[in-house]
Amino acid sequence: MIIMNNKFSVKDYYCVYNDFDTSKRIKELHNLYLPLLGNDAISLYTFFGSKMLSDKNLSKSYLHYDILDNLGLSDNKFLIARKKLEALGLIQSLYFDNNGIGQFIYKIKEALSFEEFFNTPVLAKLLENTLGSNNYSDLVNYYSLDKVSFKSFEDISAKFSDVFRLENLNDFSFDYITSKSVNGPNFDEYFFDFDKLNFYLANSYLTDVISNPEVKNKILGLAHIYKMSPEDMSSAIEKSVEISNGASEININVLSDYIAQLNVNVRKQEVPTLDRMINKNLVGKKEEQLTEDEKFAKEVDNTNFVEYLNKQVGIVLSKIDAKNIEELQSKYNFPTGVLNILLEYSIKQSGKNSIPHINYIDKIASTWSAQKLFGAKDAIDFVRANRNQKTKAFSTNKSPQKSYSNNRKSNHAPFPEYLQNRQNSFNQSKKEEDRVVTKEDEDTFKDLMKVLYNKGDV
């Protein structure tokens, strides 16, 4: 059995691959998939579909914080929503571990059309169970393309080879006819034993009726939601076989209805819906509570450097300084949270309450760039580790005193004092201003914010 992959960290990067316009299937998403998957999953799908793409149909890279903050999802809610989309074949998740740095590619797959959805028994039956028979019938009658029945007619359309003569068929490729990819639920074929089903059907000479891959996939879907054994499925197939144009074939609608009646009336089981079928290990996972450090770091990650320095350090940047910092961030590709901690650390190290010269900051940044810092939390831990190392070095070089207190060892340095003060007062009005902010400063700050928001987050 395949084990569900739960690789995911909010500090992992992701990008989106999309080669079609998701807005063309917005009615299908809202009428067919929303009742089955819920709002979180559909919001995630449309959020992925809204990403700006390059000429290679690939978006730029983002941290997963981008998803959680924009959609208001917790880690676990995001994971459930993503896996629901994967299970119903709406996205494909690809993962690559680049020296400890996780990189996801979310490949968006097109939603089924109304006709394709209604002709996929497992989805049609799940939707009917969720909406109720009357509402489902209204939906089918309104959106179905099958307004007339051609069942009694024989298809006498000519084949390509009947009309056109080809000298050498090997020179031509017809792979596209059979290689068309079919969207739909991402079923596990190991779940159902088709070899046993063939064995039971052989007694009735019906093995050919499941030779069609499309029919086989529909049977697999029904086996999933109704937990059918091969023996039970063979009995159901025997009761749903019809003769058409001299050949036996399965009437999928009859098969689906028969299995549904067997499940509810004979087995007395609950009507299956996706909410009832969801993996208990997935939804039973407890939400992880953020520590105060993590809450503080998350806020820092989502505050641009102009606003952060103004509100938390009391500094109004000049346009020259802001431009230099933008170039510094571009040079080292620091995330927003790392940049904020770097700037505050540089100010503290300089011993002044103003922005140091850019060369001073650059020297510190070059050291930080060698570290794997993905957010404010990583930057804070890096500062803490450095202080811890310096404290130990100082303690080692210091001459020992005859005091029992010197025998006590510290396992780690405390949270940096200046960051602790920031954390305690974060998002609160400063009681004392480190400097007087003039009217000119406020105007300059407003101009900077306009420029920043016009360009997007740097």
UniProtKB/TrEMBL annotation:
Q: What superkingdom heads the lineage?
A: Bacteria
Residues forming the Replicative helicase loading/DNA remodeling protein DnaB N-terminal winged helix domain are 12-253
Biased-composition ranges, Polar residues, are 391-408
> Domain DnaB/C C-terminal, which positions?
307-381
Which parts of this chain are annotated as the region Disordered?
391-440
Where is there biased composition of kind Basic and acidic residues? Answer: 429-440
Family that this chain belongs to:
Belongs to the DnaB/DnaD family.
Q: What is this protein called?
A: Replication initiation and membrane attachment protein, DnaB/DnaD family
